[in-house]
Amino acid sequence: MYVFEQFKILEIIPINVFGYVISFTNSTLFMAITALSLGLLSFIGLKKVRFVPGFFQSINEIIFNFVKGICKEHLGKEYKNYQPLIMSLFLFIVFGNLLGLFPMSFTITSHLSVTMALSLIVFCMVVFVGIRKHGFKFFKLFIPNGVPLVMSPLIFLIEFAIFLVKPLILSLRLCVNMVAGHIMLKVFLGFAVKMKLFSFIPVFACSILLIFEFFVAIFQAYIFTVLACISLKDALYLH
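The structure corresponding to this sequence follows.
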């Protein structure tokens, strides 16, 4: 169907190494654009730090303080150790989501492979932090306080299975929300074009829908960030 064409991965530069296809695709291109955009924003904003910040410096400071607030709220006194990772994930998702709103662009977070990779970064960090900080006591996380001893093995297996599935749930949440929003926008715009509805009402409705998608793109990045912080909090404090 035409609504799914916007999510199709297209090969730009075919690359085959020993039978493995690692071609440069539109997904790769827009991931690179996202990363370069982040680097450019940081470079311009922090090139000359002034007491009275300019436009780009203000944007950097707003984003920094916003993510700092999330990390501080959930991670407590150790937030500084993990803020760079959390901020990188937040910015990558935000820019990837927003970039997909432009015509002829590609939404990198509409593919499970991308969102799963981001979720696995969080998962690996959680496991690493938990084991480094608590050793084998980390596995107490899977046995809630007050559980009867006879029920402990069963509860442990259930909690551990849920823990292993969390990256998939986190990645699906982001992926599905971005796909659903873009499909809704595509269907509405396609309907307006086919019916030749270029009057004020369809244009106004499309504009409202686009603004809504703009905020959804930011909100989904926020949700991912908060859930990542909650997972790290569990590893740090065994809550």
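Residues 2-237 form one domain.
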